[in-house]
Each structure stands twice: as C-alpha cells, then as structure tokens.
Please model this.
Amino acid sequence: MYRSQRLYKEVKDADFEIFPICVPSYNRPDPAILKSLETYPELPIVLFIRNTKEQKALYKKWRNKCKIVLLDDVENIGQTRAAIVNWCVENKISNIFMMDDDIDE
Model:
C-alpha cells in the first residue's frame, strides 16, 4: 500500500476542513491525477481548464466526477495559476493546494 493510500484512509472521515486540490490542465483529457477519482471518488479535486469549445469537449467526461472551473483569458501556466489563486480568493478558500495534472500518487 502506498503511503498516500494509508493517509487517505486515516483522514477521509476526519472531522476537519478539507481543502480542494486545484489542478490546472490543458490538452490532457486523461490526466493522471483524475484517474485517482476511480479509487477515491470523494477527493476534492477542482479541475481548471481554458474556456474554449475544444477544451470543454476534451474534458467533458469528468463533469460528474469533479468540479470543473472554466478560465477565460489564460494563455500559459503562469496565468492559469494566477487565475486559480484569484478563484480561491473569490470563493473564500484560504489554503490553496495546487497539483499538476500529471501526478498520480
């Protein structure tokens, strides 16, 4: 068992605030981190993608598995990360946990 799997079991029913896992993604419709949702469906993953017809079509299969936030006016990862921080501030999320989409454990 991976350490992360053991830790997940220990904290999933704990009585404390869970922070969302903010995941920027672009042109990776099967990001490794989202495959974790098959094993851990209640992971608080928020997927951030560009608000284009092409990106929405690529990621549509994740609509009912995690929250998807569409970002306007982002062209690179720096702007995407800044938009994620702004989204968290607007939604009163004071602790930001951001992970790249290619991480699987």
In short: Residues 56 and 63 are 9 Å apart (CA to CA).
